[in-house]
Specification:
This protein is mainly alpha-helical. The chain has one domain (1-24, 98-296). The protein is 79% helix and 1% strand. The protein has eleven helices and two strands, in the order ααββααααααααα. The chain has helices at residues 4-24, 28-50, 67-71, 81-96, 101-125, 129-141, 146-154, 159-168, 175-193, 197-228, 234-295; strands spanning 56-57, 63-64. α1 packs antiparallel against α5, α8 (159-168) packs antiparallel against α9 and α8 (159-168) runs parallel beside α11 (234-295). The protein is rod-shaped and about 100 Å long.
Length: 296
């Protein structure tokens, strides 16, 4: 179950990558179809020009509408035109950014996949700690035994229930063994909570650098265009400067949310650590009290 978040995040990232690649590079078949439709429309236009434009009298004496009149009817608006314009604007923006937009797209998809997976994992790891500890302590103090307390922990998901279950399995060996088991289980749960955050931190750090690299590339292209042109004008350097600004902006747009989500996850993990430590101390105190009571 712990890998469900990674599977979900990867599927979403792959779907976005496929959709982006399809939008940026449409298949050749679609281009051929569009070319064929253009040829058909051109042939129809020529036929309409050559057709007689005189009106044909009907048997009742009323003039009948010819083919030219039918062709002059107003065309209905295409409902898909706004979507096509948005898609073409995105493709144009991506292409203006140059080749460095592809590694930036990869960084964005990696950051999105890790963010979705960690959100799913943190949501599943959330537990009502106070309610869990009340049930475990009540089970131990009321004489129902360690077995019922372990069952309560097994039926509760999350890292806190996992470390309590690990400690309860070592009750017979004494408080020192319980404390050691809790520390080992806590380290394992911590590594699970922190999994993938290195990728998210790398995305936050690398994306601006890739954007700045695209900026340098765009400025180099701009200066090369100036050197090759006989007369310097704004149009000569516009494409290079546009590439520089687009990659810089894209890198920052990717890095800022990635860094924000990284800080959010670190805060959540720190809260989990605090709850785990408090729960472990309360369990050890309860077991110590019970052991002292049995001796007396």
């Amino acid at each position: 179950m712990r890998d469900c978040g990674w599977v979900m995040g990867c599927l979403v990232a792959l779907a976005l990558l496929w959709g982006g690649a399809t939008a940026i590079a449409p298949p050749a078949a679609a281009q051929e179809t569009a070319g064929g439709e253009a040829m058909v429309e051109a042939a129809g236009s020529e036929a309409a020009v050559e057709a007689p434009t005189s009106e044909v009298a009907s048997p009742g004496g009323q003039p009948a509408m010819g083919a030219g009149a039918e062709a002059a009817a107003p065309a209905l608006p295409d409902p898909e035109l706004p979507a096509r314009e948005r898609q073409s604007a995105f493709v144009e923006f991506f292409q203006k950014g140059g080749n460095f937009m592809w590694p930036l797209l990869l960084c964005a998809l990696l950051g999105l996949a890790v963010t979705l997976e960690r959100l799913f994992t943190m949501q599943r790891a959330h537990t009502d700690t106070r309610k869990l500890m009340t049930a475990v302590v009540a089970s131990l103090r009321n004489g129902r035994g360690v077995g019922e307390a372990k069952e309560i922990c097994m039926n509760t998901r999350g890292p806190i229930a996992a470390i309590l279950h690990a400690g309860l399995t070592k009750v017979e060996r004494g408080p020192a063994a319980v404390e050691k088991a809790i520390e080992t289980s806590g380290a394992i749960e911590m590594s699970f909570l922190q999994r993938g955050l290195v990728i998210l931190s790398s995305v936050a750090n690398i994306s601006p650098l890739v954007g700045f690299l695209g900026t340098v590339s765009g400025m180099i292209n701009a200066f090369e265009a100036i050197a090759a042109a006989e007369q310097v004008s704004a149009k000569v350097v516009a494409s290079g400067i546009s590439e520089a600004l687009i990659t810089t902006m894209t890198g920052l747009v990717i890095a800022i949310p990635a860094q924000a989500m990284f800080n959010f996850f670190i805060t959540r993990i720190d809260r989990f650590v605090t709850e785990m430590e408090e729960s472990a101390v309360e369990l050890l105190d309860t077991l110590t009290d019970l052991e002292v009571g049995q001796r007396s």
